[in-house]
Amino acid sequence: MEEFFKLIDPIPRPYPLEYGIKLYNEILKHQPKICYEFGSSWGFTTCAIAKALHDIGNKKIKFYSYDIDPKRVNKANALLKSLNLDHICKVETKDIFSLKSFGSHFDFLYIDIHNNGSAIQKVLDRINYKNKLVYFEGGSNIRNQVCVERKVPTFENLNYEVIFGENKRHSFSKLNK
């Protein structure tokens, strides 16, 4: 795993390498079978999730990833291919808010859509997330302050646990049901 993270360390991203390692470990811990990612960007978190799913070794695992920007989608897919993870996931260009359905059957959802509590809530309003693992970028007190600076809603209306970065500028959290 250490060699893998050295390979993806140069990928453009707003958070430290440890963020991806923690996400990877969460996937290994829970071993989901159907996964979604909303907001793949350049593919850093996509690769961390795909590598964990690959290392689990279950051939029935499904992983769907979407981003709105076709250039980032192309870069993410090229990266997955270069790491031999393209059999696990192919990122698609989609505006998730224009989809009629996100898919009702999933075990794990990772949302990274600009640390915006309102956008996260819009996703949650459209899915049944009871008994599902839902993780999102943001949530720490410092990261919530970034929401305030951006003039977007924080996550204060959600019940969540910060998984990484409670006292750091970058964080991700797990939704508690």
Write the layout of secondary structure elements.
Blueprint: H1 2-8, H2 17-30, E1 34-38, H3 44-56, E2 62-67, H4 70-82, E3 89-93, E4 108-111, H5 117-125, E5 133-137, H6 141-150, E6 160-164, E7 172-175
Parallel strand pairs: 1-2, 1-4, 2-3, 4-5
Antiparallel strand pairs: 5-7, 6-7
CATH superfamily: Vaccinia Virus protein VP39
Count the beta strands: 7
Name the structural class: alpha/beta
Give the DSSP E fraction (strand runs of 2 or more residues): 15-25%
In the CATH hierarchy, the third-tier topology is known as Rossmann fold
Largest sheet, order of strands side by side? 3-2-1-4-5-7-6
| CATH classification class | Alpha Beta
Estimated radius of gyration: 15 Å
Please summarize the sheet with the most strands.
7 strands, mixed
Structure write-up:
This protein is of the alpha/beta class and 177 residues long. The protein has one domain (2-167): Rossmann fold (3-Layer(aba) Sandwich), CATH 3.40.50. Helices cover 37% and strands 19% of the residues. It has 6 helices and 7 strands, in the order ααβαβαββαβαββ. A 7-stranded mixed sheet has the order 3-2-1-4-5-7-6. Helix 3 (44-56) links the parallel strand 1 (34-38) and strand 2. Helix 2 (17-30) runs parallel beside helix 3. It starts with a helix and ends with a strand. 38% of the residues are buried. The model has no long low-confidence stretch (mean pLDDT 90).
